[in-house]
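Figure caption, in words: inputs first, then the predicted bound structure.
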Amino acid sequence: MSLTRRQKWRIEKIQAERIARAQKASSNSETSLDNAGEEQTGLVITRYGQRLLVESESGDLYQCTGRQNIELSVAGDQVLFQTTDGNEGVVTALLKRDNSLTRSQKLIAANIDELWLVVAIEPHYQFELIDRYLVVAENASLPINIVVNKIELSKNIDQVKYDFSMYESAGYNVSYLSVKEQTNVAEFKSQLNDKTHIFLGQSGVGKSSLINELIPDLNLRVNEISTKSKLGKHTTTNTTLYHIPSGGDLIDSPGIREFQLDDLTDKEILSGFREFKPFIGQCKFRNCAHINEPKCAIKTAVEAGEINPMRYNNYLQLIGM
Ligand SMILES: Nc1nc2c(ncn2[C@@H]2O[C@H](COP(=O)(O)OP(=O)(O)OP(=O)(O)O)[C@@H](O)[C@H]2O)c(=O)[nH]1
Ligand SMILES: [Mg+2]
Ligand SMILES: [Zn+2]
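Bound structure (zinc ion present):
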């Protein structure tokens, strides 16, 4: 559903009024002991269809519906809500987001500090899929890291490290883990404090297994990958936020088998290749598509070894060349 500008403006105005009212109410709340039912801020933990699980500032969970006319909220969103009955409530406004992650025009999560793209030895990583995920993440302007899981299944770890050196030279930090054998998991965990992290990646790579390892007693459902197709079985169904007891949050998201980026423009694909950035705008032709135009700064950088030729080929593949 797309809103007209006027509808959008109205929704924003109504929300701004609600937010102002709630702020006023909370500054008065010291005088009123019984503030049940008043608007309060909450954190969206997950959404199931039209229902939201919202956590209050004191850590209680409420099953909420959204009031009509407010934008859809997702895991990581800050909202205003009112309790109605027991553990139920109504979300009345969506607070301003710092950022959000969208795929195929669907909002996945909001207010993320770092994104971890999880890949694995099985299902075996594919560069095209990795680059598709990276394009989505780069377009959300989020810090991105890569995790290669199940390294104990690799018969040639040097080849794996060589494969990912092209992402390291593009500026991505790459961690090599085995959740099964606990390899490098403790070091990995030490990087996660006090921020909101999202785990993204194909089904079956071990996102939920890793989160289970990082948050003891969580017991998220994980599933065997199909022995026949070697693909994941789509175990996680809802994008959900979990608190790390020592600080910070982890957002688990469902993997998808085919990661379609058909709604991305060539321009978005180009800006998804972060190491191309210094050269964009330096080509002879302003509308250079960096394919076979003369005096193309990107191609010159590839020839000079400043851009990895494999990454450049991946770019050509994604724009359909
Ligand atoms: N061999 C091996 N298997 C692992 C490792 N980490 C996770 N697995 C297994 O991989 C399978 C899939 O793990 P999940 O955590 O469900 O994968 P997911 O990425 O959450 O998948 P979706 O929820 O479908 O997106 C499970 O059988 C895990 O036990 C590892 O380091 N090595
Ligand atoms: Mg999962
Ligand atoms: Zn060019």
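The helical segments are 5-28, 127-139, 157-169, 185-189, 207-214, 266-271, 297-303, 309-318.
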